[in-house]
Amino acid sequence: MKRMIAAATVLATFGATDAVADDDLWIAARAGTQGLGLEATWRPVPYLDLRAGFSRYDYETTRTEAGIDYDAELGLESLYATVNARIPASPVRFSAGLVANGNEGNFLGNDTGTYEIGGQLFDASQVGNLRGRATFEDLAPYAGMGLDFRLGDTVGLHFDAGVMYQGDPSLAMSADGVIASDPTFQAALESERAELEQELEDFAWYPVLAVSFSVNF
What is the largest distance, in Å, between two alpha-carbon atoms of the chain? Predict the structure, then answer.
């Protein structure tokens, strides 16, 4: 997946301003735990606004899961919409919405000697490429709160903190070595898959932290 590049800029001083119905359209560059992206805000009535955005980011890392070292490619992708209610005369708002969730993880075992799979030892040359792919629910509910600081009706700085529930992961694992179809290996691989899937359940509740810089059009 290609990366969407967006910049988040910090202004030195902001003042919180009362909401008005004619704020028109705000466009923001956003960066956070969902990745980098863009967000649009429309305020149809005072103290209530509608937001929609898209965030994306891919990165590579090395992880040890269920006793096996993996080269991991983690892809973050979110298309979201929220309804946001703001406390009058305050920068504080509360948000609820839905996320079209494309988060996933791809894992490639990097052991060169032996793998311990499902409590059994297998030669890495016979296992071949050991791969795993974790996906989550396509739709994730979101709840959180934020702070909106605006300088007049021109620019703004925004902070978000919340959580989206993307559900327990669904994990598939495979190998392409000479023992890939062996029943004993297949049983061990299924045991390993179940263990790794359980370890990844910590990601069911995904934290959302973000900062964004907006301009009023």
Answer: 68
